[in-house]
Fold this protein.
Amino acid sequence: ELVMTQSPATLSVSPGERATLSCRASQTVGSNVAWYQHKPGQAPRLLIYGASTRATGVPARFSASGSGTEFALTISSLQSEDFGVYYCQQYNIWPLFGPGTKVDIK
Amino acid sequence: QLQLQESGSALVKPSQTLSLTCAVSGGSINTEGHSWSWVRQPPGQGLEWIAYIHHRGTTYYNPSLQSRVSISVDKSRNHFSLELNSVTAADTAVYYCARVELRHFDFGTFDIWGHGTMVAVSS
């Protein structure tokens, strides 16, 4: 059974700092991973697909990497609007989200 | 600009059927390269995919919900729908409809979302 895990569960970051979020798949999913940002009361927003390609309109401070089973999302200089929960999702088989990493203000 | 809007009952009694519709505006539901999907988020929890339907009618369901769920599309009305039967309190969640950009065979990413609708299961 495929399981997606994310770490850390919560990341406390000061504005302007760098944040790195991790996502792991229990079996290989190739590069078929996406990242989403989700803020309370809003719909999730697609940030990254294909493990490393930014979606349309996503700022360059968001970057991502990985393949196989290990993936990472980096926010190079956190802005106030970047706080929220970040989910990874694999689409190698039917869609499965990770449990999320909450990025909050330090 | 494509927009999605969920509608349906906000309160459903246990053991009954939850029914939701997603209206698609600003574009056609009958397009190659996309499918249509439902995702939910129970209170305090993460996102859970429920079901997909391709414009040609092929459906995929989350194995954990497959026995209770049905997704359908009405091309004439440009909307798609979800039915989840035998609901319990565990089905209480915000339900989102979303467009899927197909990127890997029949699967892909959720690139356009509705605002979500809260559905509570309670007697």
Summary: The mean pLDDT of chain B is 95. The radius of gyration of chain B is 14 Å. The longest strand of chain B covers residues 93-104. Chain B is about 0% helix and 55% strand.
